[in-house]
Amino acid sequence: MIVVAKMRAKEGSEEKLKDALVDMVSKVNEEEGTLLYTISRSQSDPKEFLISEKYVDMDAFVHHTSTPHFKELSASLASILDGAPEVGMYDELAALDK
């Protein structure tokens, strides 16, 4: 299961958002069932961030969203995001993993 979340920082909050998202990686690494958790920043717009996530199944994703670190991040985003995150959920059809 693939989850992609796109978010945009408010003016002046770009580094706060970057730091909060990057900090999540080590915490998410401890979660069973999380296979991939990547934070990316747009090359053309430093306010835009993309989180790419891969889970073994829906239960692993639900577990992720119930963790204290996810809830803490979610609560902190309200003051630094410009609008709600755009979240899409996908089934993986093919992949290259080198």
TrEMBL record:
SUPFAM superfamilies: Dimeric alpha+beta barrel (SSF54909). Residues 1-89 form the ABM domain. It comes from the Bacteria. The keyword NAD does not apply. One of its GO terms (molecular function) is monooxygenase activity. Keywords: Monooxygenase, Oxidoreductase. It holds the Pfam family ABM. PROSITE patterns: ABM. PANTHER family: ABM DOMAIN-CONTAINING PROTEIN, QUINOL MONOOXYGENASE YGIN-RELATED. This is Antibiotic biosynthesis monooxygenase. It comes from Candidatus Zymogenus saltonus. The lineage of its organism: Bacteria, Deltaproteobacteria, Candidatus Zymogenia, Candidatus Zymogeniales, Candidatus Zymogenaceae.
